[in-house]
Write a structure and sequence with these properties.
Oligomer: single chain
Number of strands: 0
Distance between the termini: 69 Å
Helix content: 55-70%
Order of helices and strands: HHHHHHHHHHHHH
Shape: globular
Radius of gyration: 21 Å
Amino acid sequence: MTRRTTWLAAGIIALAALAVYSNSFEGDFIFDDLPWIVMNPTIRNLWSPCEVLFPSNPNFKSGRPVVNLTLAINYAFAGTDVRSYHAVNLGIHILAALTLFGIVRRTLKLPAVGQRFARAATPLALAVALVWVVHPLTTAAVSYVIQRTEALVSLFYLLTLYGVIRGAGSPRPIRWYLAAITTCLLGMATKEVMATAPVVVLLYDRTFLGGSFGGALRQRWGLYLALCATWGVTVWCLLSTGFHSGTTGFGSFGNTDDSKFAALSYAATEPGVILHYLRMAFWPVGLCLDYKWPAAHLPEQ
């Protein structure tokens, strides 16, 4: 009965996502979809994996090899038929929601949580995953094709944590830990936010598994060495692209030669953006794909 209930919950999550995003498949390529997909020659030949993962021409999109690989697979099967890209995005989103369901469900059954939630673990996990899979704040990550980057790194992030949870409760943990290290590595090659994953896994371990930082590190020191070693991939991706100069961070302001001033302006702008999205998480009214958020103006020295 438990397995049947789990599969039923998984089906409900998938159906909810399909219902909410069924009207997104006709959305066209826009904004960064054009250079990353329509005008990106590096995804045209899946059978040249080195060119897909590590473009020889720096003018073409690079620094996120796993994302480029998924685009190349899309192109190999459907060319520039936008529906196939939307289908993959939605599939990634559903897999992430199912992984979140698994994380919450297993966490609520851990001894550290006690017996308070164990009996209700499946319905509570289903509620959490449903809220996440249909939340309006995830719309861009699913419907805006190149924002697959966000959906994909979220999937790898969650899979890394899930692998550690399963390994900690398994009599043969090595295969789960290897899976966690692999997904962490793939995440690092997807987007730089994955760099926080080893730290978040350690915090989770300390809270729910090891009981303390010392206990977590004593039991799984090899795992954490391997997870931290994947930081090298993020460093390489940043160095190979010049830290995405001119497209992210203060470089995107682009109207000043004073990089120090631009960095300070970017830092002053971000708190307002963060507060805006925190509010949207609880009250998602007025969502917009491109806010054209104005940079904060600092007094001249």
